[in-house]
């Protein structure tokens, strides 16, 4: 018989409106609301064969499985964000049973309540800046009967290197200036490490990868500011994402969670 674990997506206060009836989470299971004191854990049942510690470690190396799990997790968080302020937990936070979930809430109740008070009515926006890859180089314009000398070739390479370095310095200066302007419009901000192009598939070099905590009622002005900066970005690409739940500011989506005595740990893939 297949046994199940309790997967926890987020912790929040009681919802002001019901979740969509057709919402599904990990493995197609509908999320449930587990109440404890004045808080709610949004949970679903997942197979132990996939989420027990050893199995989970193996799954975290499977990019297809990881992507599908992350999409299902994010779908539940997105749905919660439309009706409440959720505190997203780390991807693949699991417990043996409801008792383990309640024990976790009991132990962290004061932290959860403080975070919910601080984040109420606020959302996270993500802003990334990329250099645009140069067009493919054309063949040398030198006549075919006058091949480029070794000295000319080295001179051209040095000029190309200097131009590339100057472009990168200009891109980094723009990214720093944009980040400062956006931080002035946000209540809090976080700089994340640049994205690895080999993993993300994004074109160009990532020179800004940041998150901004913004009140919902000031989000329109924040988005307009980002849009205006796109006129300043010849050779650069500015990407805006959101609004999201406040992953970067909750303090809980980046923590591991272990059930006392249960041996079940959280995995991560953000």
Please specify the SSE layout and strand pairing:
Elements: E1 4-12, E2 32-36, E3 39-47, H1 48-51, H2 53-59, H3 63-81, E4 87-88, E5 94-95, H4 98-119, E6 122-131, H5 150-185, E7 188-191, H6 197-200, E8 206-215, H7 219-229, E9 236-244, H8 247-250
Antiparallel strand pairs: 1-3, 1-4, 1-5, 2-3, 6-8, 6-9, 7-8
Radius of gyration: 24 Å
Structural class: alpha+beta
Q: Strand content of the residues, in percent? A: 15-25%
Gap from first CA to last CA = 32 Å
| Tally of contiguous helical segments | 8
Number of beta strands? 9
Low-confidence stretches: 137-142, 256-270
Shape: globular
Reading the helices and strands in chain order gives EEEHHHEEHEHEHEHEH
Helix content: 25-40%
> Describe the biggest sheet?
5 strands, antiparallel
Mean pLDDT: 82
Indicate how many domains the architecture comprises: 2
Short note summarizing the structure:
The protein is an alpha+beta fold and 270 residues long.
Keywords, separated by commas or semicolons:
270 residues; single chain; alpha+beta; 9 strands; 2 domains; GvpL/GvpF family gas vesicle protein; gas vesicle; disordered C terminus
